[in-house]
Design brief:
The complex is a heterodimer of chains A (300) and B (323). Chain A has 300 residues and is α/β, with parallel strands linked by helices. Chain A folds into two domains: 171 residues, 3-Layer(aba) Sandwich (Rossmann fold), CATH 3.40.50.1980; 112 residues, Rossmann fold, CATH 3.40.50.1980. In chain A, 43% of the residues lie in helices and 11% in strands. In chain A, strands 5, 6, 7, 8 and 9 form a five-stranded mixed β-sheet that branches. In chain A, strands 2-1-3-4 form a four-stranded parallel β-sheet, with helices on both faces. In chain A, strand 3, helix 5 and strand 4 form a beta-alpha-beta unit. In chain A, helix 2 crosses helix 7, helix 6 packs antiparallel against helix 7 and helix 7 packs parallel to helix 13. The radius of gyration of chain A is 20 Å and the shape is globular. By secondary structure, chain B is an all-alpha fold. Chain B has one domain: ABC transporter involved in vitamin B12 uptake, BtuC (Orthogonal Bundle). Helices cover 78% and strands 0% of the residues of chain B. Chain B has 14 helices and no strands. In chain B, helix 1 runs parallel beside helix 13. The longest helix of chain B is centred in the first third of the chain and has 36 residues. Chain B is globular. The two termini of chain B are 16 Å apart. The chains are: A alpha/beta (300), B mainly alpha (323). At the A-B interface, helix 4 and helix 5 of A face helix 3 and helix 7 of B.
């Protein structure tokens, strides 16, 4: 299952290299000290073959498919729509504050939760019912690697986990090398209009933009989506605006945005939010799409 | 009158049975029965005994507590609009909970302690203001102090949430909309303890409420010290309300309307009003929670909104019949 990733962005030689690297890392991983808690601070469930998995976040559902565990999924959230096969998995509703009894009725032996305070009660209830729980949260690229490794261990697919993480890393490296020597324009990543939210340095998107050959003007803000003032956007005067298709119209039609040279000059780049909006197994693909937006022609 | 009472008891009992038997997952009645007997499929047993039953128990306790608390406050302040949430309790509790969420606390038990502490702080503030203004003067002073403290708490919440990340806002909002989604037996036991201490005390003081209803002078003539009695009643009823917000967040409307329903059923004598308010409040919240978790299953509706949506038509029909 993980091969679909590699096939798309890697040459055959790279696939073999990735597998070789995977085996090497696997050989060394015995000595590696593993953190004993998940992203909610709870102890990790034991590594074993899980046959009935409920994944309650889109990023982990994608990841489970990439790990080859997609056919063991017995539940997902209503937002999990990628890959296409995910749509055939039963929809159990929301991933934040899920319905505990609906999840229980799917009879899972593992529930993968998005790590947030809102899900603490659900995690407790599942554990009380004897169901293994792992809470994961991916805000940055390094979190993706960690989540991949932990999830791979817990569902009994540690080798595939290494392959997936390596293939994503390899694609990201390829994009970085392609854009490294090019001029890096400054960009403003528009996350929300009212209140005005930017993508800050704490988000994987800020990292992706740097890899794709640009500089996020709000990279110095530590949060993933800090609130910023319009004055500050004007002062930082980005060369480009990166926005989703939905916000494009708002920016074009709101008079204040016309004050920004980037907008006046039509330098608004539209991101494919369904691809870059989620820190999952398509991080490499997302970096490629951003690089193509920022530096047309660099990546064929 | 006893016919209406019997109807109320049957309706509440029916709500409890339905609350355990019905949920977003279909469980056949025979399987519910088996689960209650501690038998049958373990997953069904977990759904019935560990998810639904504690939730229904907590709903019953939350409704009963809010009903009693509202009836006492309306009596003690001689104001039909008095309710626990109008008197600073909700504002203080919400500010406490939001402050906890905003500083990064995610453990539900800590948030609920913060809410309880916030509620007590607000009640203390309200009583302090009332005392400074001359406790004796007018029960409306307490009401005004409560409203003002509530407004201050709301402002504090908005300041806390204005610059907060979306996740904090979401957590705070969930809490303020009221929910029993996380109910466990431990929560029900805690609220039962608060009710076991305050409930009998309030019932014991029901005669004071009857005297206060005649006016301070008449109460004094009957041997009740009005200031002392109303202070005692206000404090105890607020404590009970604080216990409910700590357990379920803000569940509005119940404390305001259930006492009116109770008076419509059994007249003005407070011993009867408090008992009926407890039963009616319990039944209303159990029914509202059942609707909250099934109408848009598997998503849940905010309980605080559903109590109003379920309760208002009922209340209006009652108002028309009383006229």
């Amino acid at each position: 299952m993980s091969v679909f990733l590699l096939a798309r962005w890697s040459t055959k030689g790279r696939l073999e290299a990735a597998v070789a690297a995977a085996l090497l890392v696997l050989a060394c991983s015995r000595q590696e000290t593993r953190s004993a808690v998940d992203d909610a601070g709870d102890p990790l469930p034991p590594a074993e073959m899980r046959t009935r998995i409920v994944s309650l976040s889109p990023a982990t559902t994608e990841l489970l498919f990439a790990l080859g565990a997609g056919d063991r999924l017995v539940g997902r959230t209503r937002w999990d729509a990628w890959p296409d096969a995910a749509r055939t998995v039963p929809d159990l509703g929301n991933g934040i504050r899920p319905s505990v009894e609906v999840v229980m009725a799917a009879r899972p032996d593992l529930v993968v939760l998005y790590a947030t305070g809102d899900n603490r009660d659900a995690a407790r209830a599942f554990r009380a019912a004897g169901i293994a729980v792992i809470s994961l949260r991916i805000d940055r690229i390094e979190h993706f690697e960690r989540a991949t490794r932990l999830l791979g261990d817990v569902v009994g697919e540690p080798v595939r986990a290494v392959v997936v993480a390596d293939s994503v890393r390899a694609t990201l490296e390829r994009v970085r090398r392609a854009t490294d020597s090019l001029p890096h324009p400054t960009v403003f990543l528009h996350a929300w209009e009212s209140p005005l939210l930017a993508i800050g340095g704490g988000s994987y998107l800020s990292q992706l933009v740097e890899i794709a050959g640009a500089r996020n003007v709000f990279a110095d803000f530590p949060g993933p989506s800090p609130q910023v003032s319009f004055e500050e956007v004007l002062r930082r005067n980005p060369e480009y605006i990166l926005a989703g298709p939905a916000t494009l119209r708002t920016i074009r039609e709101t008079p204040r945005w016309q004050r920004l040279p980037a907008v006046r000059n039509g330098r608004i780049l539209v991101m494919d939010t369904s691809l870059v909006g989620r820190p999952g197994v398509r991080l490499g693909e997302a970096a490629v799409s951003l690089a193509r937006l920022l530096h047309p022609g660099v990546l064929p | 009158m006893s016919g209406r009472l019997a109807f109320l008891l049957v309706a509440t009992g029916f709500a409890v049975v339905a609350g355990v038997a019905i949920g977003p997952v279909w469980v056949a009645p025979a399987d519910v029965w088996r689960a209650l007997a501690g038998d049958g499929d373990p997953v069904v047993r977990a759904i019935v005994l560990d998810v639904r039953a504690p939730r229904v128990a907590l709903a019953l306790l939350v409704g009963a507590s809010l009903g009693i608390s509202g009836a006492v406050l309306q009596g003690a302040l001689r104001n039909a609009l008095a309710e626990p949430y109008l008197l600073g309790v909700s504002g203080g509790a919400a500010a406490g909970a939001v402050l906890a969420v905003a500083v990064g606390v995610s453990a539900p038990s800590v948030i609920s302690v913060a809410a309880f502490a916030g509620a007590l702080l607000a009640v203390a503030l309200v009583m302090g203001v009332a005392r400074a203004a001359g406790w004796r003067a007018d029960p409306r002073v307490l009401l005004m102090a409560g409203v003002v403290v509530g407004a201050f708490a709301n402002a504090a919440i908005m300041v806390l949430l204005a610059g907060a990340p979306a996740e904090t806002t979401r957590g705070a909002l969930w809490w303020m909309m009221g929910s029993l989604g996380a109910a466990q037996w431990r929560d029900a036991a805690r609220l039962a303890l608060v009710l076991a201490v305050t409930g009998p005390a309030l019932l014991h003081w029901a005669r004071d409420l009857d005297a206060l209803a005649l006016g301070h002078d008449a109460a004094a003539a009957l041997g009740v010290r009005p200031e002392q009695a109303s202070r005692r009643l206000f404090l105890t009823a607020s404590l009970l309300a604080a216990g409910t917000v700590a357990a379920a967040g803000l569940v509005g409307f119940v404390g305001l309307v259930v006492p009116h329903i109770a008076r419509g059923l059994v007249g003005a004598r407070h011993r009867a009003v408090l008992s009926v308010a407890a039963i009616a409040g319990g039944g209303l919240v159990v029914a509202a929670d059942l609707a909250a978790r099934t109408v848009r299953a598997p998503a849940e509706l905010p309980l605080g909104a559903v109590t109003a949506i379920v309760g208002v038509p009922f209340f209006l029909s009652l108002l028309r019949r009383i006229r």
